[in-house]
Specification:
Radius of gyration of chain A: 24 Å
Oligomer: homodimer
Strand content of chain A: 25-35%
Structural class of chain A: alpha+beta
Largest sheet of chain A: 5 strands, mixed, barrel
Number of helices of chain A: 12
Largest interface: A-B, 54 and 54 residues
Distance between the termini of chain A: 23 Å
CATH architecture of the largest domain in chain A: 2-Layer Sandwich
Helix content of chain A: 25-40%
């Protein structure tokens, strides 16, 4: 995409009403717009990141046999009264139907999906099943000061599993746990993200969270220095030693980027989701739930990988793979940069081409702030030498590349994802 | 996808509380689930159709230079008071923020997008711009009896254009009108969809609608028998003759599948979206809006192309390209069907593989109801002959195909899209 065509622009000043680092950076770089506290719009660059994150997660959900659906936001009171969650006042946004009747805006989807599944599950032969969606959640947060890390409205991937029994549930749960580790690794935050034991619920003493180290984290975890598994502050008292045997821990401030829960039969009992086993006996379905907030993951990547110059995107989620920066507008430079751009597009490389008529300093500052992983500079000097200058955003390493060697470089990055 | 893996099942009986043909068919075939009147969940087959429609529309929006964003559903009262649309009581779902403050759920997005654009548009050099999104709208309809054709919650593609003046606006408008004609053609309803003159607004006497002939349509149009352009009942009195000169019209019942509007400077004036021209003078931006409801389009395709046996999807939006139906479970048939399935997957063909252990009659009935464009039957007979039977769902034509000739056939369909 030519940058002269992109409607967003960067800004130098931090927005006055924004206290979070992620939203400050993302607003200055033109990725998002603040509608109100906890409610953000995704602008072209930001939406490209969200779509890449969505694609990355979808791939892993499909690998474990997930089937994608999309449930409604508007929710019927009746279903939620059956699980006694209609009166959870701190979380719902509620509204009124013209002509009468109270509705809620879904903050999660255990109830409606369990209800849907009663139409399709009746026999042991129908199980196990894993169903997921990318869907907008609404949560009436009293405070929303963490930018896109804690939204009042946000896109969430939520998967729900349906199993015959505890044993089959645990197989699905273990597979999903592995899938989550893979997702955070591919999203570029694997090394700073810890599978973390946290409080469970009625059906198991513990749940599993995925906690990412950040200076501004809301949570505190204790990371085992021997095996890297962590324990949330809330359960740490229960674990004098790690399950690996070590008793040496490091304390970290973190943010939760994902969580997985054993729901047992709480929802299937309340909503009548059961199956006949081989002997003809009715049993309640054993459920699990598995969430990742896409905005929160994007915000976490923005906060943890950025540097003093701006955003730093890993190739897997970056809005573009290459930022082609043209310096100067003499005929030969323009022709060479245009050709280079067209050549990369033909190879399927995603390129933001800075063809603007502004100073080199402004172009470099903007490029640093936007944080595309590879920057290629085309100038009178590089046109003369026949090799253009490529800078890796994260490491700052500089290479010299021709068009074909750049395509190879990109492809080696893409292969890694 | 193996059908034994698909969690939805077809049902023979029509849902009791459903009066619309589209929702009746889609529920029976397992594409959607009714949450409440006017609110539907998309199940795996239905979501695949919606995603295909989304892809088809996105392609045309990108072709005309559209930039994709995603704005929030939660809306601030203040912005909408500026255009005096906050008090449009019949359409809003409103809600309350914990801690105080009234919010609305967007039923359209002129106001918030105009507000966003004030951050990025200041000079004539910034225009023209076209910005679009696929975003969930909420409309508090008093009656919602048309299935997914008139939702209280529905996915909409809305594009907004921003132009220097009326002349530049008209260029964008004409391009979008062509793009819409292309979209409905590709979605398989081109021949029964008419560009229709309808009532305009403050800034132009007429708007353009796209009206599709259906028995159950809410609208009445008068189609010129000479040139196929139509006039909505509401403006017909103003046109004794068609713009082509003919005065011969046919009256049709239709449903509106898209509309495009000249907004003039109504929103830019109210929200302060202006630009400096070359002489330094401030001017209001001239806007247009262009909508397509994805559920409505899907419902229209379902209603108009279906037959007495069930749904009939055009290849462009079908949930799968091929329905591979295996008859019987003798070893050779299973091996042959499995190989055929794997071979098609390798070629990138989207296949639903009916590997269930049910009767041939049930398989054919389900296949007719689900409406995938090509059905390939693998049976003891076809295994022996070396050629499998392929039936076109729409025409009922039968052909005999080998694996490689089927891949060619699919590719010729896909090329047409």
């Amino acid at each position: 995409m030519r940058q002269t065509h992109l409607f967003t622009k960067t800004r130098k000043e931090s927005p006055k009403d924004e206290t979070s680092k992620n939203a400050d950076l993302l607003i200055r770089a033109g990725f998002i717009h603040k509608e109100m506290a906890g409610v953000y719009d995704y602008l072209p660059l930001g939406l490209r990141v969200i779509k890449n994150i969505e694609g990355l997660i979808r791939k892993e959900m499909d690998k474990v046999g997930g089937q994608e659906v999309e449930l409604s936001s508007l929710q019927n009171k009746e279903i939620w009264e059956k699980t006694e969650r209609w009166d959870a006042k701190d979380i719902w946004f509620k509204t009124e139907l013209n002509g009468g009747g109270e509705l809620g805006l879904g903050f999660t989807h255990e109830e409606p999906l369990t209800q849907v599944m009663t139409n399709f599950v009746s026999s042991y032969k129908d199980l196990p099943l894993s169903v997921y969606q990318f869907q907008t959640k609404f949560r009436n947060e009293l405070r929303a000061k963490s930018g896109i890390m804690r939204g009042r409205e946000f896109l969430m991937k939520d998967m729900y599993t349906f199993a015959l029994d505890k044993e089959q549930h645990e197989e699905l749960y273990a597979k999903l746990k592995e899938a989550y580790i893979e997702i955070f690794k591919k999203a570029g935050i694997g090394e700073i993200t810890h599978p973390t034991k946290a409080l469970g619920g009625t059906f198991s003493p513990y749940s599993d969270e995925f906690q990412t180290e950040t200076g501004s984290g809301e949570d505190t975890i204790h990371v085992c220095t021997a095996c890297n598994i962590a324990y949330n502050e809330e359960v740490k008292g229960e674990f004098e030693k790690c399950t690996c045997g070590s008793d040496s821990f490091e304390t970290k401030k973190t943010v939760e980027v994902g969580n997985i829960f054993n729901l047992g039969t709480k929802f299937s009992e309340a909503l009548g989701l059961s199956y006949k086993d081989e002997s003809g006996k009715e049993n309640n379905v054993h459920m699990g739930s598995y969430g990742i907030g896409l905005g929160r993951l994007m915000g976490t990547i923005a906060e943890t990988l950025s540097d003093e110059k701006g955003l730093v995107w890993p190739m897997s989620v970056a809005p573009f793979q290459v930022h082609l920066v043209r310096l100067g507008d003499n005929e030969e430079v323009v022709r060479s940069a245009d050709e280079f751009y067209e050549g990369l597009l033909r190879e399927g490389v995603e390129v933001l081409y800075d063809d603007r008529d502004v100073s080199a300093g402004e172009k470099f500052n903007d490029s640093d702030l936007i944080g595309i992983p590879l920057r290629v500079v085309v100038s009178a000097k590089t046109v003369q030498s026949g090799e253009h200058e490529m800078v890796e955003r994260q490491s700052g390493k500089t290479h010299f590349v021709t068009e074909s060697s750049l395509v190879d470089t990109i492809q080696s990055y893409v292969r890694e994802i």
